[in-house]
Amino acid sequence: MLDHHVGKFTEQSQLIKEIASGLEVFWDNPSYSPAEEANRYTKYSIKDIEDAEERLQRFAPYIKIAFPETEESNGIIESEIIEITAMKKWLNEINDKNVEGNLWLKRDDMLPISGTIKARGAIYEVLKHAETIALEQGLLKSIEEDYSVFSSKEFRDFFAKRHIAVGTTGNLGISVGRMGSKLGFNVTVHMSVEAKQWKKDYLRSKGVRVIEHETNFSKAVEQGRVESNANPNSYFVDDEHSEELFLGYTVGGYRMKKQLEDKGIIVDENHPLFVYLPCGIGGSPSGITFGLKQAFGDNVHCIFAEPTKMPSMLLGLESKLYDEISVEEIGLGGITVADGLAVPRTSGLVAKLMHNYFSAGYSLKDETFRRLLWNLYDKESVFLEPAAVAGLAGPHKLLVSKEGQNYLKKNNLENKLHQATHIAWATGGSMVPDDNREVFLEEGKAVSEQLAKF
Ligand SMILES: *Cc1c(COP(=O)(O)O)cnc(C)c1O
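That's the Probable D-serine dehydratase sequence above. Prediction below.
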């Protein structure tokens, strides 16, 4: 980190100057385009989402056998939405501003198998890889076969000769580790410095090889990639470049169409939908956003949320350097309470792709994460891990900030807000052990008592 570097970027942009000073910001994306136009700039389309959905359907009979907790959903990995009126009331009070419309929470913290949004992307990528090699080697005759065969000894023995590796701040490792080892693969997880002890213990108890790195996420991924690439029998789930992770996540966004219909929630020109997504490397918010855009077009507004210490997507988009800049180059980084978002450098693949689809982004201080965590628990009896609460600040960031108001004005949304639906995407938490929960709750409660207002 060199000082002249910091100066170079902060002179270029007022926003980068604010980010570099650790302020909470709201950013109105200057490249945001109508969905139809944005769709012309990308090679992905609704066909890719349908292909991913069909693959997940093919694997459902196997998932149902391998993970009995998916019995009820017939092997489909999906989550509910719940309305959170008591939390909305508290947010309104603390911000001195009423959010019109309704506030909902998307419960990816309750996703089966790994209890985080990673279950969408990572499990999809591992399944796709398993399917690809099983077809190549003639073990699976065609995609018409009943995929229950993946639970047979023959398939497990076949995968037991192969490796899967991944670099992670923790949660991606849990999803890849659980799915990969269930199929029979030898799984190696490279954990960055943030990774919580319980995640390492948990994976080891499932027979996964865990390598602990003293370095940040970008470096742990790099080391994992080098080790995996040296072994021709090893497949690397690459969070920095993975198309498959992205496609797995898109399904979650697209499925919202039916889920909202089933709840009687209208989304159209006069009933806008705002979705707030916690963002680390950018894979999950990008995939979900792409799916939402294919489902709702210009009637959905997707906004990503990052920690003030690691606003890697904001920095990548604002500087237009994408993955060629790290937050360390503007003097940020270090440890954040939102460990699931502790990514210093965004994904080049998704940052470039999503450029025109994201409406906006914002950043939150560690103390804000802690307060949201405690108050959600206090008001709604829902415990989320710190990263997962980031979306809850979204509606007020949008309504209160100058940049947010500017976005609403430009897009003719000001008169429609009373008919709006806001969804905060809760990205994880159900697997956090009790003693860790206690610590987060106590810290959150203490910060909340010190600070009356935002
Ligand atoms: C990984 C993660 C995110 C962000 O997903 P990215 O693909 O890294 O942007 C958000 N919340 C939780 C709990 C996560 O584990």
